[in-house]
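WARN no homologs supplied; continuing
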Amino acid sequence: MKFSLSACAAIAALCFAQLAEAATVSITPASRPASQSEVDDPGSGGLQADSIVHEFFVTTDGDILRVGDLNIDVALYNNPAGSDTMPPNPLFLPVFPSLGADSFITTPGDTATAGGGLSDQGASFFDSSNDGPQNNFLFARLTTAPGEGGTFSGVISVAGSAGPEVFPFSFPLGIPEPTSMMLVGLGLVGLGSVRRRS
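OK structure emitted
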């Protein structure tokens, strides 16, 4: 009996050690309307008023290897002076404000694409350097036209203690889903009827 308890304890310790070493990834989305200065920029290449700028921040405890197997099923705004694989240089933003809404996907180090870029389904963005864990790193900015909705999905691969670990993600882009719009509408109708009775 002594042996079996020791064996169970050893197996449990091994399992907990492996769980403790597993990589973790968390993604935080944020959205905002395109600013007036971004829309009014003569070099914007057609950025529309009321476009929605979606930003995605990732925190990892391992090096990001790849953002890939992408599926983006809505048209994105691409600035003529922008890049699919890197954010704009902040020094250019005062002169060309519309670059602040340019769509891109990137990694913390040198980024290379395979399978196309933002416009190709299943594309991957690879990181060719070891940059270690990341804290709230902006890995994607995707700007959609007003009234258009879709999905941004794929995987983020990070270095784990036993090799690469893959974390799938999926987020809505653009307009809220019809159910949300209906609930907002019902809420406004309800507020109107309460106000009328007062």
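The two ends are 76 Å apart (CA to CA).
OK
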